[in-house]
Design a protein that fits this description.
four-stranded parallel sheet; alpha/beta; GTPase HflX; 11 strands
Length: 387
């Protein structure tokens, strides 16, 4: 895959494929997959959607549709095929042989992007661990040498030991080493958290679907210069700054976390446990939503799903509907502060524009009320939501 950070490298032309199994979140236009591809430095040249009741065990889409994919790829000059679902190792291998070109699934594509975007030492370690865990399940990917025996005199591992066994042993060793290094980083982060707790700091974490505008909102609130862009996964590493609230006469700790996405690989959720720990340990979550995206209810659901997986579902939340400036006048809400019903519970909601600054004073006021309420109670009674 070409890196978007390499301007002189021509992006690889790719064919996007999605299979509708009747699930409610199926993206028939493959819009999100296209954005993921572009974020990874690839160039979508054609798209193909099809329907199936269940995946084909061998080729995921069946041999007839696989033939159609091969013809379409040849017609448009695609050099790689991207699937919007996760493929089993056997399906991926069989498809590559049938299509005679590389095949990447949604999981590996997200891993590639995370690998390109990680900047901190911890972020790089977490991505590496997730990548190694993925490779450990499919040592038969694109390397023909994995299917050859490496035995005889002078061969590593002794006569008859396959290259795949050697690779698996090497990957297992790398996974163990990476986990040990991550444990040290987690201890350092835990020490920093304990220091904040001793200082009685009120912790606020920004969470939300990727590209909802979390980093832009973070920058607007704390006047920071965290990287923000109109792309998926612009931010991977947690950034924490102090936000002074004059009416409360104190600062709160504000953290910008990695964005969530549909079908986020479980390996990444596990690997990014330390980064997402900022959300788990927060006193309040600002759940940033792209108000201009018609699919925002599904995106809210995906974020709630991940929050549940990492143990942060019971933390008080405020829904911050961002990108108010991108909403047409006919759809603009009459009231910018209300409640949004989610899972049978009313949740506080504010409409803001991180770009123009509209609604930010109301958000600061809400944070002030939260801090003042926390000073006199163990929880925040006014905005607690059992989500």
């Amino acid at each position: 895959m070409g890196s978007p950070d390499s301007p002189h490298v021509q992006p690889t032309p790719v064919l996007l494929v999605g299979v509708d199994f009747g699930l409610p979140h199926f993206d028939g236009e493959l819009e999100e997959l296209g954005l993921l591809a572009e974020t990874a430095g690839l160039k979508p040249v054609a798209r193909l959607s099809c329907k199936r009741k269940v995946p084909d065990a061998a080729l995921f889409v069946g041999s007839g549709k696989a033939d159609e994919i091969r013809m379409l790829a040849q017609m448009h000059g695609a050099q790689e095929v991207l699937f919007d679902q996760a493929l089993s190792p056997a399906q991926q291998r069989n498809l590559e042989r049938h299509l005679d070109m590389p095949v990447t699934d949604r999981t590996l594509l997200i891993l590639e992007i995370f690998g390109q975007r990680a900047r901190s030492h911890e972020g790089k370690l977490q991505v590496e661990l997730a990548r190694l865990q993925y490779l450990a399940t499919r040592l038969v990917r694109r390397w023909s040498h994995l299917e050859r025996q490496r035995g005889g005199i002078g061969a590593r591992g002794g006569p008859g030991e396959t290259q795949i066994e050697l690779d698996r042993r090497m990957i297992d060793k790398a996974i163990k080493s990476t986990r040990e290094r991550l444990v040290k980083v987690k201890k350092q982060r835990a020490t920093q958290r304990r220091q904040r707790e001793r200082q009685d700091v009120f912790n606020v974490s920004l969470v939300g679907y990727t590209n909802a505008g979390k980093s832009t909102l973070f920058n607007a609130l704390v006047k920071a210069k965290a990287y923000a862009a109109d792309q998926l996964f612009a931010t991977l590493d947690t950034t924490t700054r102090q936000l002074y609230l004059s009416d409360a006469r104190q600062s709160v700790s504000l953290s910008d976390t990695v964005g969530f996405i549909r079908d986020l690989p479980h390996g990444l959720i596990d690997a990014f446990q330390a980064t997402l720990q900022e959300a788990v340990d927060a006193d309040l979550l600002l759940h940033v939503v792209d108000a201009s995206n018609p699919d925002f209810p599904e995106q809210i659901a995906q974020v709630q799903k991940v929050l549940t997986e990492i143990g942060a579902a019971d933390i008080p939340q405020v829904l911050v509907f961002n990108k108010l400036d991108a909403i047409g006048s006919e759809l603009r809400p009459a009231v910018l502060q209300d409640e949004y019903e989610w899972d049978g519970q009313p949740v506080p909601r504010l409409f803001v524009s991180a770009r123009s600054g509209e609604g930010l004073p109301a958000l600061r006021q809400l944070l002030t009320e939260s801090v003042l309420a926390a000073k006199g109670a163990d929880k925040i009674p006014d905005i607690h939501a059992d989500m």
